[in-house]
Amino acid sequence: MTTKFLLDESRIPTHWYNLQADLPEPLPAVLNPATHEPVTPADLEPLFPASLIEQEVTTEREVPIPEPVREVYRQWRPAPLYRAHALEKALGTPARIYYKYEGVSPAGSHKPNSAIPQAFFNHEAGIRRLTTETGAGQWGTSLSYAGALMDMDVQVFQVRVSYNQKPYRRAVMETYGARCIASPSNETEFGRSVLADTPDHTGSLGIAISEAVELAAQDPGTKYALGSVLNHVLLHQTVIGQETMEQMAMAGDSPDVIVGCTGGGSNFAGFAFPFIGQSLRGGESPRVVAVEPSSCPTLTRGQYAYDYGDTAKMTPLTRMHTLGSGFTPPGFHAGGLRYHGMAPLVSHAKQLGLFEAVAYPQKACFEAGILFARNEGIVPAPEANHAVRGAIDEAIRCREEGSAETILFNLCGHGHFDMAAYTSYFAGELSDHEYSDEELAMALSGLPSV
Amino acid sequence: MTTKFLLDESRIPTHWYNLQADLPEPLPAVLNPATHEPVTPADLEPLFPASLIEQEVTTEREVPIPEPVREVYRQWRPAPLYRAHALEKALGTPARIYYKYEGVSPAGSHKPNSAIPQAFFNHEAGIRRLTTETGAGQWGTSLSYAGALMDMDVQVFQVRVSYNQKPYRRAVMETYGARCIASPSNETEFGRSVLADTPDHTGSLGIAISEAVELAAQDPGTKYALGSVLNHVLLHQTVIGQETMEQMAMAGDSPDVIVGCTGGGSNFAGFAFPFIGQSLRGGESPRVVAVEPSSCPTLTRGQYAYDYGDTAKMTPLTRMHTLGSGFTPPGFHAGGLRYHGMAPLVSHAKQLGLFEAVAYPQKACFEAGILFARNEGIVPAPEANHAVRGAIDEAIRCREEGSAETILFNLCGHGHFDMAAYTSYFAGELSDHEYSDEELAMALSGLPSV
């Protein structure tokens, strides 16, 4: 039995929800890496248009969604909410399980929720070109899609090892008309300096960020776009949670537990923040659980400290849960969710005790995703498998406790682009990596003293 | 601007539409390959359950869709209809272009429309296992998905060369719990005989069909499932066209031209037959255009004759447009649509002059798909690119004629699983192949004399 809760498209949210308005304590300042003084909007102007900088710093509860952005959202939004009857039955749980499904976007994930407005606000500011970095390619794909629809040139620096290993993602970006360049490249000073030193360098996200930022900073017609971490990116994603709240009301149910996966934090925040805000304003207070990979355990084993956003230490310093900007996740990790830090707003909410966090090894997550696919018919992205694992474990707890709770999770994308990870799983090629305390301490020893 | 026409899920059709009820001349008989006498339902019983055989031969106009099948359809149906405003603008055409989008299914294409009922009717008949063949993997994926939801074992014989070259498709099938076997295999007598002769045989669709059929015929608990060509498969796909008719009414518009792509014929028939039936019953009569690859030009250059459905000449003889069962499309052709024959019902409708057919080389189709993606945001499957090309060329004709016609096409699937084909296109590795008359005549010289 399929129970799908679909909102009419007139119900696409008209505003993004800003958790900052409801926080009991304000977000710690972002610091200039040279002076350690709080950054000013002017510091950010070489990289972002004024409208997005305003969204980055505003504490207004509601930020209006421009009508042209809602128009594009209408291509796939409101996204469906499903009741997972078959999964419940397979688990023999008394719990009711619901999932919001963001894989219906043309890019197959939640990422366009922010790529579209970022392209829109840049275009409105007269910017003609966006630069960004991408690892596996999910964000690069989404920004390329947004660029095609919003008539912007997009230049994506893709980590060279992914560029070589994952030509299909690049093909998607090129189909959308974006330029995808292997990083380190000869197109930036920083890229050339890396290549001069190590001609066969396989690249890193840190280097790719540095190249994308360098290009944007040089040319007034070019800005930089980031797919997670920043406040305005999290803000854009709150369409997910807002729709879900209305759909849960349609279902005549309300969640006891909310589960999302975390990498940089954008899908988790977009899904959970509207619920956390409701709770902070005195409404219903479900438990909120963030699930992260135990091979990159930012929230569960990281330190809450000021750190750089990139490996090259060029970005402002933000207070966040971090494993140290020099942290490198294990060489072969199938999913995304590999960022060394965590969105400052997510980190702050964690510090305030507004949600819990758990970490899972990747094989247990693939196992959960496969059980989900066989019962619910959708093959989740490897990242989304972490949320599936978290939801299933909550449902198993309900079974053991005989507790008929309502579990709600976000399925942030489908796995159609990522079947190589499943192939590796079935071939027994994936391994789980748990860092020792010593290893983590070593990566953290390089934190800047602020 | 996005204009999406979404039906409420109560509007999922309650019946499949059977074109046979409205045809001015009945479909020619299917012949037993040994006796050349018409086949009886009993001849088909080793392979299909009675309910599907009944659907294969019925001339009733409406065949009820069982409620459990509609329940599964609800996971993604009704599928959206879009107005392609951005594409219209890019083409500078006065035409209005609409497209139905079947890529929203969990398998990414229209194929589950038939996979789900085939699994359901087999399950209802007490069958525990389905066998099938697959080339690139679109149908194998869909039947595996259906098997997972309907609690059936699925065994897919995948042409060995695809099995080796496309491990991701296999991973999808395995994620759904299906067994995917490289064909020729050691699991059937026929497979063993092929391997005994040629140990490194790369396989063919014909061999894979023979293996799947052999396994089904041997075991009373196992039946065979086919993803196109047969009447009951086309029947199941008519949910596409029925929904589209209602959505066009929502849009307050009606098509002057309808475009679909043809391989075996199932997505074309499912989309176009409800419109053709309406026309045959005295209603509106849009032009209907079938688009096929010029490298496998069944409808445009094939012969309308009795032929075998498989290369091994084991299947019944059907009257259809065929290039000869020995015809082999060029070694590297990126899309699907490679079947040597055409669905008998589609062929018969063509013979009756109920639609037109055109053929396009594959590079022109990729070019069209890329233009579509950059304007409409969805990356089409290589097969679907043929329909996109056909629709774009109709829109260009409208521009040249200054004619504000309404063009409607079926976008039968997304290309997320098939980005390797785009990679080849961008790398300049695709070539167009046009057969000479002599080459085609040679393939046709082997037609059985009936």
From TrEMBL, chains A, B:
<dbReference type="GO" id="GO:0005737">
    <property type="term" value="C:cytoplasm"/>
</dbReference>
<dbReference type="InterPro" id="IPR006653">
    <property type="entry name" value="Trp_synth_b_CS"/>
</dbReference>
<comment type="function">
    <text>The beta subunit is responsible for the synthesis of L-tryptophan from indole and L-serine.</text>
</comment>
<comment type="subunit">
    <text>Tetramer of two alpha and two beta chains.</text>
</comment>
<keyword id="KW-0057">Aromatic amino acid biosynthesis</keyword>
<dbReference type="GO" id="GO:0052684">
    <property type="term" value="F:L-serine hydro-lyase (adding indole, L-tryptophan-forming) activity"/>
</dbReference>
<keyword id="KW-0456">Lyase</keyword>
<comment type="similarity">
    <text>Belongs to the TrpB family.</text>
</comment>
<dbReference type="GO" id="GO:0004834">
    <property type="term" value="F:tryptophan synthase activity"/>
</dbReference>
<comment type="pathway">
    <text>Amino-acid biosynthesis; L-tryptophan biosynthesis; L-tryptophan from chorismate: step 5/5.</text>
</comment>
<dbReference type="InterPro" id="IPR001926">
    <property type="entry name" value="TrpB-like_PALP"/>
</dbReference>
<dbReference type="GO" id="GO:0030170">
    <property type="term" value="F:pyridoxal phosphate binding"/>
</dbReference>
<dbReference type="InterPro" id="IPR023026">
    <property type="entry name" value="Trp_synth_beta/beta-like"/>
</dbReference>
<keyword id="KW-0822">Tryptophan biosynthesis</keyword>
<dbReference type="InterPro" id="IPR036052">
    <property type="entry name" value="TrpB-like_PALP_sf"/>
</dbReference>
<dbReference type="InterPro" id="IPR006316">
    <property type="entry name" value="Trp_synth_b-like"/>
</dbReference>
<keyword id="KW-0663">Pyridoxal phosphate</keyword>
<protein>
    <recommendedName>
        <fullName>tryptophan synthase</fullName>
        <ecNumber>4.2.1.20</ecNumber>
    </recommendedName>
</protein>
<keyword id="KW-0028">Amino-acid biosynthesis</keyword>
<feature type="domain" description="Tryptophan synthase beta chain-like PALP">
    <location>
        <begin position="75"/>
        <end position="413"/>
    </location>
</feature>
<dbReference type="Pfam" id="PF00291">
    <property type="entry name" value="PALP"/>
</dbReference>
